[in-house]
Amino acid sequence: MPGEPIEGQVLLLAAAKASIPPERLPTLVDQVQATLGPALERYRRSYERCYASDEREVFLVDSDHWTDIGAELEFGDRELSAVRRAHEEQFGRIGRRSDREAEFETTLEIRAPVCIATGDPSEPSESSSSSDSTA
């Protein structure tokens, strides 16, 4: 079973900015992960991967891709906005940690990040900031 695509502190930040109850966001993120996790190989083949670690991979998609995910999961506008914001906040945190903040901010102007958990939550977490390609 994969770990979490979004770190706890990032969830708290995104929930504080979202128009949904903060306790709802982790459930929504879990629903998205349940949909995206099994599609990881398809994402690897179809989208640019701009970051990979033991815990998660981040792919850059067209902005309307989130609309498709929301429709598939029957999310309302507020739910979808909150989940998308969580993925964007995680992407920003990765950019700051890997000294790629400016690059990642520019990327957000034209594409959207999708974070997919890849790690096993039962294994000890190691911070890794390997990257595959540029955004």
UniProtKB/TrEMBL annotation:
Domain of life of the source: Archaea
InterPro entries named among the record's database cross-references: DUF8048
Region (Disordered): 115-135
Pfam name, any one: DUF8048
Sequence ranges assigned to domain DUF8048 in this UniProt record: 5-117
Biased composition regions of type Low complexity, renumbered to the chain: 120-135
Record's protein name: DUF8048 domain-containing protein
Organism: Natronorubrum daqingense
